[in-house]
Design goal:
This is Probable membrane transporter protein. Keywords: Cell membrane, Membrane, Transmembrane, Transmembrane helix. InterPro entries: TM_pro_TauE-like (IPR002781). By secondary structure, the chain is mainly α. It has one domain. It has ten helices and two strands. Strands 1-2 form a two-stranded antiparallel ribbon. Strand 1 (211-212) and strand 2 form a beta hairpin.
């Protein structure tokens, strides 16, 4: 791994960790487009670049979610009973998501990711919380909901917050509890998705040295360390900056990244 690649990944990891702490969001939607740019610039196999970016992004969430959930747990905000009901479905869905991604051409996967990011940016920009309409479903319903959250998260390399938080809020869970519980769900999403990306990527030819399945281990190591170190600084900064304004700026940046991924898929 040359020095320019290391520097690029260090900057990316720092930006992702700081943003996660500042805005309380996962880094997948930032990581995937920027990592796609970096790996493409370094002439990684074009057919696998998006798959590798998504898989490596998902793997980093294993590390960043731990520090995030600890902070929420200390405040007593995590609803562990809700997380327990959603986790079985999440583990199944997060395993299936990367398998679906493997069946898709890299360009199709890039387009799907672009649409997901554009939807998430719009959700952030409008900042609308769904009206509470019902209580949480029973065990079968929670299993199905967890499966959907996990499958989509595993497919796009994200922590699931843009899906799980609106779902829980719609089911009368208070917003701060929904955010905290969503953070707790990040680890099982990342764990199952990472194992799936390793398993389904092991038989893929032409992956670059340093790959474990679809995961590019050097990038994982660099980004995990820097993002975990910068997340607390982002969280501290959040108390002194207008976070609502920052979210709007971040949403517009997501639109730009979605446009890049759409370009990547259509060209």
């Amino acid at each position: 791994m040359d020095i320019t690649l290391i520097v690029g990944l260090l900057v990316l990891g720092a930006a992702v960790g700081f943003s996660a702490g500042l805005l309380g969001i996962g880094g997948g939607m930032l990581l995937v487009p920027f990592m796609t740019m970096i790996l493409s610039a370094k002439h990684f196999p074009e057919a696998h670049v998006v798959h590798m970016a998504i898989a490596t992004s998902l793997a980093t969430i294993m590390f960043t979610s731990i520090s995030s959930v600890r902070a929420h747990h200390k405040r007593g905000a995590v609803l562990w009973n809700v997380a327990k009901l959603l986790t079985p479905g999440i583990l199944i869905g997060s395993w299936i998501g990367p398998w679906i991604g493997k069946q898709l051409d890299s360009s199709v996967l890039a387009i799907f990711f672009a649409l997901f990011v554009a939807f998430s940016a719009t959700q952030m920009l409008l900042d609308k919380k769904p009206a509470a309409a019902r209580d949480l479903p029973g065990t079968p319903g929670m299993l199905a909901a967890g499966g959907c959250i996990g499958m989509l998260s595993g497919l796009v390399g994200a922590g699931g917050g843009f899906i799980s938080v609106p779902f829980m809020t719609w089911c009368n869970v208070k917003i701060h509890n929904a955010v905290a519980t969503s953070a707790a769900l990040g680890f099982p999403i990342a764990l199952a998705g990472t194992l799936s990306n390793i398993y389904f990527g092991m038989d893929v030819p032409d992956l670059p040295p340093g790959s474990l399945g679809f995961i590019y281990l050097p990038a994982l190591a660099v980004i995990a360390v820097t993002s975990v170190l910068l997340a607390p600084l982002g969280a501290k900064t959040a108390h002194s900056l207008p976070v609502k304004t920052l979210k709007k700026v971040f949403a517009y940046m997501l639109y730009a990244l979605a446009a890049y991924m759409l370009y990547k898929g259509l060209r």
